Amino acid sequence: MPELLTGKTAVVTGASSGNGRAIARRFAEEGCNVVVADVQSDPREGGEPTHELVPTETDASATYVECDVTSRDDLERAVEAADEFGGLDVMVNNAGIVGPVAEVTDVDPDDYRGLMAVNLDGVYFGAQVAARRLKERDEGGSIVNMSSVAGIDGYGDITPYSAAKGAVRLLTYALAADLGQYGIRVNAIHPGVIETAMTTDDMPMIGTQEGEAIRETLPLQRYGQPEDVANAAVFLASDLASYVTAESLVVDGGMVNTA
Q1: Of 204, 200, 198, residue with least CA distance to 165
Q2: Is the pTM value of this prediction over 0.85?
Q3: C-beta neighbour count of 239 within 10 angstroms
Q4: Over its length of 259 residues, how does the chain's per-residue pLDDT go in tens digits?
């Protein structure tokens, strides 16, 4: 059976761990070569680095590029690395951080700016660099931006995070309007509570009383897994979504629309 992404090459930021790691592995399972762009190669959850794991699990190839998404030069190097496999087809702007968990009156300006630099600027410039390369290739392509349910509803105590993710949602729509004439589709994924280091360590929810209360309200009665997010990314990157652009795909077990 043909794979959905055979012959394509993707750059995935933040692909060493969590959702990004799952996206890179699922892309590879579907025949896509992957550039793992991250500040470190070792996964937070342990195990082999993503770029080493891919060729042992699949027939696809992978390479690692050290990439801080707050640096446009780093993003350009990551996109250039796709040339090793024939050139960029898909850009996944996944890298993100939680940042300050505090009431808005207590948020330090430097912490706020640091979060925006990663979660918003990193997406903007990742999309910009990818769009330039995709336009040069003149073969269309797909850009997938990682937002969050917090970019739809907004949540207290993570106000900067909600602001950044909401901006990613509208940025996605604006990019789609700009780039559609070149055959470049731009979409956003909005994960809910996904079981990664972000929800177990950085902003502990899973395993907490608050987290269990949220889980019990979900129609599907479970936390999401990184593979759930990865499957959504495969769809948006593939020709199955050839007429899908300027869209938000919510992967939250029903959290937003049934609250």
Answers
A1: 198
A2: yes
A3: 10
A4: 469 999 999 999 999 999 999 999 999 999 999 999 999 999 999 999 999 999 999 999 999 999 999 999 999 999 999 999 999 999 999 999 998 889 999 999 999 999 999 999 999 999 999 999 999 999 999 999 999 999 999 998 999 999 999 999 999 999 999 999 999 999 999 999 999 888 877 777 788 888 888 889 999 999 999 999 999 999 999 999 999 999 999 999 999 998 7
Concerning whether 248 is annotated as a catalytic residue, the answer is no
8, 161, 162, 223: the catalytic one is: 161
Catalytic residue from among 8, 17, 165, 223 = 165
**Catalytic pick among 148, 162, 223, 238:** 148
Q: Is 148 a catalytic residue?
A: yes
SS (H, E, C) 130-199: HHHHHHHHCCCEEEEEECCHHHCCCCCCCHHHHHHHHHHHHHHHHHHHHHHHHCEEEEEEEECCECCHHH
The span from the CA of 30 to the CA of 24, in Å, is 10
Separation CA 90–CA 82 (nearest Å): 10
3-state secondary structure of 99: coil
Indicate the domain borders of the chain: 9-258
Q: Which fold has domain 9-258?
A: Rossmann fold (3.40.50)
Q: How many residues comprise the chain? A: 259
Q: What is the identity of the amino acid at 66?
A: E
Torsion 229-138-16-113 (CA) sign: negative
135 is catalytic: no
